[in-house]
Amino acid sequence: MDLSNILNISLIYATLRSATPLIYAAMCASITQQANILNVGTEGIMLTAAFFAVAVSYFTGAWYLGVLAAMIAGAFMALIMAVGHIKYKADITAIGIGVNVFALALTKFLMNVFFHKSGTFTHPDIDVIPRIKFNFPASWGEVPQLIENWPLTEWFVIVVLIALHVLFYKSIWGLRLRAIGQHPTAAESVGINVKSMKYQAMIISGMIGGLAGAHLSLGYGALFTENMTSNRGFMGVAAMYFGGADPLKTTVGCLVFGFADSIGARLQNLGMSPQLVLSMPYVVTVAVLAVTMASKLQAENKRKSALTKFR
Length: 311
Fold this sequence. Notes:
This protein is mainly alpha-helical. The chain has helices spanning 10-33, 42-60, 63-87, 92-115, 152-170, 172-182, 184-189, 194-219, 232-242, 247-269, 274-310; strands at residues 120-122, 131-132, 150-151, 223-225.
């Protein structure tokens, strides 16, 4: 096996490309986790948004309207979860799973209604997210080519990461968000509206998940396929756990998943079993979750041991 066909400069871009929708999904989960809400419905938010991005882009001929529609659709799905969990006290995990199943059925139904198709819909009239071209001279080597021709949403994910990091740790709103996640009673006692903050977190989360869906359907290509998210939402949640809902640390987890996916695709091209290759991202997900949970358990045991000695 020639490793130069696997480990080369293009693997970096392949990793970034695979990680981008995961980063959006992980940020979608991170913002609600800061409010102590586990957004298991990230998958459904992304899938619904991916459909509406394509549908609106096709009917209007404007990619930015498609992205806007995706963000609105994502926010609406997140709002469904928020009302069920915050107002009616329903279990957030059950609601999230329900939203995921609902999104599968809804997008399949709407594709039949609007496009009279099943499986996959694509059309030349779908306006895709534009790509940023720098036109670096070939004499500059391969490294500058890594950032050539990226879709706008691949650049925008960097803005989202920085914005969320500042929002979480450098703003009053972020301080309040973390306060209601860690000590809601104490936060409420100083005048913070806990329910309002949770609703805000869920809606913003849905909008970011909408960007993830739009990137999948209009950034990668110009199509919608049933269940095209392919569990990326769940991987985003796993990456969120890995990074402790911190945007920068969570991104590292997304890059690990993106790297595994990119390596798997290259190994498949070299003749490795497709079943083994397809399982690689999920094996990595389970491994990352296992390591994360073990680390947290060890830290908790140390904390309890320290408290025992103090007493």
